[in-house]
Write a structure and sequence with these properties.
Strands 1, 2, 3, 4, 5, 6, 7 and 8 form an eight-stranded mixed β-sheet that branches. This protein is 56% helix and 16% strand. Among the domains are: 2-76, no CATH class; 163-280, Mannose-Binding Protein A, Chain A. Helix 1 (2-19) crosses helix 3. The protein has 282 residues and is of the alpha+beta class. A hairpin with a 2-residue loop joins strand 6 and strand 7 (264-269).
C-alpha cells in the first residue's frame, strides 16, 4: 500500500519538475525530495489511499464475482430456454407426424368403404336382375302350365264371376273394396292377376261395365321406377294407357298404383281401398 502512495507522490513530483523545465527526471528517495515539507502535506492523502485500497480491491472483486454469477445464471437460463425450444419443436414434429398418419389412415378407410360400397352396389344390382329373371321365368312357366291344363281339360278353369270381354276373361269386383296388395292377392287366389289392359278396344269394353262414381284398381304400378308402369301379371312395362287430365301425377311416394275412374286412368295411393278388376292368365 505504501508503494502505491510513493508512486503517486513520485508522479506528482515528476509532473512538477517537468513543468518547471527540468531536462532530466530522476526519481529520488521521498524524504530527500520533499525536504521535510511536502511529505507531511501528502501523508493524509497517502494514508487515505492506503486505507481504502483494500476496500476498492474487494469491491472490484465482488463486482467481478457478481458479474460472473450473473453470466453463469444467464448461461443456465439460456441453456434451459434452448432445451424448451428443442422440446417444443420435437413435440410439434411428433404431432405433425401423428396428424399425417391419421390423415393417411382416414383416407385409406374412405377408399376401403368406397370399394365395399361399389362392390355391394354391383352385387345388389346383379341380385335384383337375377330375381327379376327368376320371377319372369316362373310367371312364364305358370302361364305355360295354365295353358297345358286348359288343353288337357278342354275347357278353361274359371272362377265364378269371370266373363269374356273382348278376347280375354275379366272379373269386376263391385261389392268389396281392398287396397292394391290385398286386391292382387284375391285375384291370385281366383287364378288370375289384377288386370292390365292391352288395347283401346279392350279398355272401352271394360269401362262400359264400370260404375263411373267408383274407382277400380288395375294391375299396373310404378313401384320399381317412377314413370315405368309395369304389369303385375307379366312383370313387363304396360304399353297402353288412357290417362286423365294432368296424369300421371304424384302427391307423395304412396301414389304408385293405377286405377280407373270415370272412364280414365289415374295414379293413386296404393293403400286406399277401392274396387278392382282381375284378369285370367297373363
Amino acid at each position: 500500500m505504501f508503494r502505491l502512495s510513493v508512486l503517486v507522490l513520485n508522479l506528482l513530483l515528476v509532473s512538477h519538475e517537468f513543468s518547471a523545465g527540468t531536462a532530466k527526471i530522476e526519481i529520488q528517495p521521498l524524504p530527500a525530495l520533499c525536504n521535510g515539507y511536502c511529505f507531511p502535506t501528502l501523508k493524509p492523502v497517502m494514508e487515505y489511499v492506503a486505507i481504502h485500497q483494500d476496500k476498492w480491491n474487494t469491491c472490484t472483486e465482488i463486482l467481478a464475482n457478481e458479474a460472473r454469477k450473473d453470466q453463469i445464471q444467464l448461461n443456465i437460463q439460456l441453456d434451459a430456454l434452448k432445451a424448451d425450444v428443442s422440446n417444443i419443436k420435437a413435440s410439434q414434429l411428433s404431432k405433425d407426424e401423428k396428424l399425417d398418419r391419421m390423415e393417411r389412415e382416414q383416407f385409406a378407410m374412405h377408399e376401403s368403404l368406397e370399394t365395399i360400397n361399389r362392390y355391394l352396389t354391383v352385387k345388389l344390382d346383379r341380385t335384383k336382375l337375377q330375381l327379376e329373371a327368376i320371377k319372369n321365368t316362373m310367371d312364364y312357366m305358370k302361364a305355360q302350365m295354365d295353358g297345358y291344363f286348359s288343353a288337357i281339360n278342354g275347357v278353361q278353369c274359371l272362377q265364378p264371376g269371370f266373363e269374356k270381354i273382348g278376347d280375354r276373361y275379366f272379373y269386376i269386383e263391385e261389392d268389396v273394396e281392398l287396397n292394391w296388395l290385398d286386391a292382387q292377392a284375391k285375384c291370385r287366389r281366383m287364378g288370375g292377376h289384377l288386370a292390365s289392359i292391352k288395347t283401346k278396344q279392350e279398355f272401352d269394353a271394360i269401362v262400359e261395365k264400370l260404375d263411373d262414381s267408383k274407382s277400380y284398381f288395375l294391375g299396373v304400378n310404378e313401384n320399381t321406377k317412377t314413370g315405368d308402369f309395369v304389369s303385375a301379371a307379366s312383370g313387363k312395362s304396360c304399353l297402353y294407357h288412357e290417362w286423365g287430365p294432368g296424369e300421371p301425377h304424384h302427391n307423395n311416394d304412396q301414389e304408385r298404383c293405377v286405377s280407373i275412374l270415370r272412364k280414365l286412368m289415374h295414379v293413386g295411393n296404393c293403400t286406399y281401398e277401392k274396387r278392382f278388376i282381375c284378369q285370367y292368365g297373363i
